[in-house]
Amino acid sequence: MSTSAFSSPAPDKHRYHGLLFAVAGAVAFSGKAIVAKLMYRLGADPFAVVGMRMVMAFPMFLAMAWWAGRQQREALGEAALLSRTQRWQIVGLGFSGYYLASTLDFMGLKYISASLERAILYLNPTIVLLLSAIWLRHRVRWPQLFAMLLSYAGVVIVWLHDWNSAALLAAGSRDLDARQAITLGSVLVFLSAVSYAVYLMGSGQLVQKMGSMRLVGLASCAACGMAVLQWWAVHTLTHGGQGHVADLPWQAWALSAVNASLCTVLPVWLVMRGVQLVGASMASQAGMVGPLSTIWMAAWWLGEPVTWRLIVGTGTVLAGIVILARASRPAPQAEPENKNKNKPQLGQALGTRAKA
């Protein structure tokens, strides 16, 4: 499976189906937060939620990696084989992009609303841009800076929505004041976004060689192993105080199966199929329906309040990301592709962030 398969738009007759795939993938990704919060209400904790999700998703990710790898071996022969260095790179990317990002995200979801979590995660392109400016000395242009400030202003507005609804939204916190819990949850989810931004910045070269599907499959398999090891270690060290599942009702296991399949693995395929049909830019814009679908699902399934701050703040975040994506498009006289293959792409950040 070549990288080009996920970068060039197909003929117009496939555009409608591509948009449907991208929108469905974004909505399914957004359901992850709703499912996690429903599991918390049934007595699960973040370590159990992550562990159960990864155990159930592992066979599907393994099949994804095998299928994509077979396609590459048939097309490229021995050139598709991975070196020892590349295998360790995959482990590192799995740690940053899927294990650590997922763990921090689910820990943060314990304390904040699903809508605030989604708004913070959509800051990912701005984090990629900031890290690129710090580590790679990329120049940040004024339109990009304005877009970043607009996005962060939107998150502040959504955060104020949670702050005013603190007693309801942080009811699951037993050892923290409600507003302290919301602050902690926001920091944890932001660190999750940073962790995934590091993954995006480090994945450029491997994506060129392996393709998105194979890299996601292998990195996710590595992350599954780390999550299960963490689950066992936490359960052992806390003498069953954290990570327990023995007394969870069957509904929690059913929700975890939904989380692993419909909210994790299936959306990966849907989004990448959408990118293949309509291109990364259009698929990314279609994926903007994610935060809005989160607001609706959180209100319907969780009873989370919908306020003017939530609507205005979410809209402001999305406006900032749209402006940033357009401001970050390469000029016609851009450098040759081989000089930019390791640079993180904002379209990739928009289109794949919800995977965590």
Short overview:
With 356 residues, the protein is mostly helical. 76% of the residues lie in helices and 0% in strands.
Number of helices: 16
What does the overall shape look like?
A: globular
Taken as a percent bin, the fraction of beta residues is under 5%
Major beta-sheet overview: none
Task: Kindly state the number of beta strands.
Answer: 0
Radius of gyration: 20 Å
Assign the structural class, choosing from mainly alpha, mainly beta, alpha/beta, alpha+beta, or little secondary structure: mainly alpha
Oligomeric status: single chain
Mean of the pLDDT scores?
85
Would you identify the regions where 5 or more consecutive residues have pLDDT less than 50?
A: 1-10, 334-355
Distance between the termini: 23 Å
Number of domains: 1
Order of helices and strands: HHHHHHHHHHHHHHHH
Describe the protein's architecture and organization.
This protein has 356 residues and is mostly helical. It has one domain. The chain contains 16 helices and no strands. It has helices spanning 15-41, 46-76, 84-109, 114-121, 124-135, 142-164, 166-169, 178-202, 204-210, 212-237, 250-278, 280-286, 289-302, 308-327, 337-340, 346-352. Helix 2 runs antiparallel to helix 10 and helix 6 (142-164) runs antiparallel to helix 14 (308-327). The radius of gyration is 20 Å and the shape is globular. Mean pLDDT is 85; it is low at 1-10 and 334-355.
